[in-house]
Amino acid sequence: MKISYNWLKQFLQVDWEVTKTGELLTDLGLEVEGIETKESIKGSLKGVVTGKVLTCVQHSNADRLKVTTVDLGDEKPVQIVCGAPNVAAGQKVLVATVGTTLYDDKGEGFKIKKGKIRGEESLGMICAEDELGLGTSHDGILVLDENIQPGIPAAEVFKIETDFVFEIGLTPNRSDAMSHYGVARDLRAGLIQKDLKLELISPSVSDFHVDERTLRFDVEIEDKDLVPRYCGITITDIEVKESPEWIKNRLKAIGLTPKNNIVDITNYVLHELGQPLHAFDAQKIKGNKIIVKTLEEGTKFTTLDEVERSLSSDDIMICDADENPLCIGGVFGGLKSGVTENTSSIFLESAYFNPVSVRKTAKRHGLNTDASFRFERGIDINCTKYALKRAALLIEQYAGGKLASDISDFYPIKMEDFQVFLSYENAYRLIGQEIPKETIKNILASLEIKINSETAGGLGLTIPSYRTDVQREADIIEEILRVYGYNNIEFSNKLNASITFNDNKETKIENIVANQLSALGFNETMANSLTKPEYISLSEHVNSDANVEMLNPLSNDLAVMRQSMLFSGLESVAYNINRKNTALKFYEFGKTYHKYNDKYQEDKHLTLFVTGNRTKDSWNSNSNPSDFFYLKGIIITVLERLGIQKVKATPVKNDVFSEGIALSLGKIKLVEFGVVKRSVLKEFGIKQEVLFADFSWDTVLKFSGKKNIKVANLPKFPSVKRDLALLLPSSAQFKEVYNLAFQSERKLLKEVDLFDVYEGNNLPEGKKSYAVSFVLQDETKTLEDKQIDKIMQKLQQSFEKNLEAVLR
To answer: In terms of Cα–Cα distance, which of 306, 418, 290 is closest to 350?
Structure first.
């Protein structure tokens, strides 16, 4: 939110340095994120002065140029070559002197230099209004009033204004500070604590009176809960034209583009007092009646931005007697009812709309306006009529309007101010030190919080209506503390802390797996649980009926809670790949969220993502891409680390995998994993293969930790490795070799590994070759060759007998 310092000074005659004021606003909770210097005309016309043309003669070498001498208020006049057709002796003009920088309409500057034009010396430039930013005309030089004296800075003649604009990071609860008057009110409270007591000057509306009652509009409100207060007045005989410079300067300082006097005045009052207003062209309102109601679902309405929108049956609509929609209440005006240069009479609206309804409407239509920004946070309902009078008087003064009706004020149920009791003891406890009672009362008075009663233990208080965020005793204490100053609270140099011991089994298991995966080169990710509704189209396993939707989503991309952790993980993968980080291994512990028959369900998962090479490219290592079996090995090690073995592998039916399997214990599925389909990856702009594993973590936890880990001393005696090259039937599997080996030698055989498989030329049909290694070890003595040969012969005989193996 932008706040003009010059605008603040209309309410507080403060003469503080701008940086000092910014620091105080930050201390008060209105954090100043930056201070920008604004000039009503870029450069502030520095170096431009008034001058008098003494002589003007034709240039000897150019038909369109004239040579002039100009008095700039110095002892000696200067010579300037000018090409303007209207320059003449005796004129009072504006001259950009040598060294002055002028700016074009794009903000790009050029410097006036001493030089010669067609042989004649020129020491400056006689300016047209567009060259100075004073207008758009370039027909000739700007001629001033003949009574102006030479040598006066142009900034004084045209009252060029330099302003400082605070960029305030306003928190959502501070709706009271969404205006210059509100910020000035807070600044005054802070200045009082600095022993600088200033009067808060509010705009006067004492001159408000109705000129003639010639045009009256009836107002009908159908739902007082949606519209607790609605005010309106008609103004006739207006002339739509440019606003006065001071209004345009105020709006331009805070980044608004002036349009015309009517629109500018409504915007001015909005940013002055925080009350949104809307002006309707009275001739476009049928039946001289305003009806505030909701319309049927799907009703079409074209807003000021020329976009046709489909209305919701919950949108507050301003309609005429024929129930034609004119405006989305509190959000955006209609194209057909707005003010144009032909408008001669208006109906001016000032209302209080239900904040929740306005917020939902604004989100529903993707509109974020200055009006909705304030309505959805809660404005001051008691400012509604006052702001209407303020705007009406400005329109009367600067548009020549006449007030043609009394104010219609629909306010059936008066909103009462909050009553809160403040306990001194609670205040001291929460603040952390005892603040003098008189100081507390002075702070409350500076915040316009009324003291109704006082006891030895505390104060009975009435909160002003504009402080919608102050409703509890704790809120009052926070107000006292921020004005008193957080920096003024003493604190101890001693730090007290307690150490808690977490003996949660689930957390321990998660940490075990996290440490294991991290050791394997994985990085942990934490994705947002909110995601895009469009992701449901990527898989049949997620559907819109099971979506858990947000009532007030921050954006369309965060409208539902995720039903799958795949898509949020792929967002992270895509983000990294787009930044040239293509070798990725991620894991995430998280939840998915589902709605089944009006009941909500959360499921916990562990997901793995693997893509690219297993390790980063290096000069001393070859590229080794990750594949399906690499991910399977990692999954098996995770399960075995948790004591889960003898899992069954079955093909998985999941439309996000091009190839995938599931690992189960009996009929209970533990994990699904596979290669993500290219059609899914394409939605994220991913062109390389991605492997994905999804553990049903709640199920894994049920079966984990049931195997005791045995600890033994490291063997003292060496192991022996022997290899066999076996010719086997093509139907034989390594698992059969593995099991037969351990059945034949249970005591000394420690490991069996398959290190080569060959099928092809030079082998009999229906045969394949396995190269198998065997590791033997005796933990009590060193093995001898005779004993080793005996074991290997026994293994060979077992393979020959049971698998029809032949030693190659």
So the answer is: 290
**pLDDT tens digit sequence for 468-509:** 899 999 999 999 999 999 888 888 788 777 777 666 788 889
pTM here?
0.67
How far is Cα 423 from Cα 570, in angstroms, rounded to an integer?
54
Extended strands (E) in 265-336: 277-281, 289-293, 300-302, 308-310, 317-319, 325-328, 332-333
d(CA 366, CA 59): 62
Strand 300-302 to 308-310 pairing: antiparallel
**CA-atom Rg of the chain in angstroms:** 41
- Please write the tens of the pLDDT for every residue from 391-435: 999 999 999 999 999 999 999 999 888 999 999 999 999 998 999
Closest CA to 250 of 220, 281, 274, 272: 272
CA atoms within 13 A on the CB side of 475: 17
User: Whose CA is closest to 15, among 161, 198, 251?
Assistant: 198
For 90, 138, 584, the CA distances from 258, given in Å and listed in that order, are: 36, 22, 53
Mean pLDDT on 568-590? 94
Task: Transcribe 738-789 into DSSP letters.
Answer: HHHHHHH-SSSEEEEEEEEEE-STTS-TTEEEEEEEEEE--SSSPPPHHHHH
**Which range has the worst mean pLDDT, 128-137, 344-353, 592-601?**
128-137
* pLDDT at 619 > cutoff 70: no
Closest to 527 measured CA to CA, from 578, 429, 593: 593
Q: Nearest-CA neighbor of 233 among 338, 350, 320? A: 350
Contacts of residue 64, Cβ cutoff 8 Å, sequence gap at least 6 = 83, 85
- Over 70: is that where the pLDDT of 211 sits? yes
CA distances from 364 to 227, 293, 536, 544, 713 (A): 19, 18, 20, 18, 68
Mean pLDDT computed over 707-723: 82
The amino acid present at 70, given as its one-letter code, is: V
Amino acid at the residue 691:
L
pLDDT tens track for 145-157: 988 999 999 988 8
Decide if 724 contacts 744 (C-beta within 8 A): no
Number of helices followed by number of strands (H, E) in the chain: 20, 41
- Model pLDDT for residues 46-80, shown as the tens digit of each residue: 999 999 999 999 998 888 999 999 999 988 999 99
pLDDT score, position 316: 95
**Beta-ladder partners of 657:** 676
